[in-house]
Amino acid sequence: MTTLLIRDEDLSTGKAIQEFSLDFLTEHITVRELIRSRVYQEVNDFNLRGSKGEFRGIIASANSERTATGYRMKTSRSIDWKEQFVLATQAFEQGRVLILVNDQQMQSLDEEITVAAQTVVTFVKLVLLVGG
Asked: Where are the domains of the chain?
């Protein structure tokens, strides 16, 4: 088993918002598999807490509103990881979420990543400017 360090980074400051680890059974994964594993883990963690508190996912749930550090659910219900996975892959494909592996930007969901102890994956959410 190999572990990846995952960082969510604030584009304006360049600082990490949160860091956590994801374990993989193989040494080679695609960007799609990375997103799937990340989304599954963050949704599962949230749902195990009984859908309480903030959801700190890479992408907002349809039933949430943005806060300073994540998303607050408007109602207390579980999040469907498959729906979140679809939203996250769409955000990546539309350029609203950047994924950097060892500071190299990933371009495609099918791009391969070598999972190694020193590999750092950074997710950056881009925020659209109002009126621009």
From this structure: 2-125
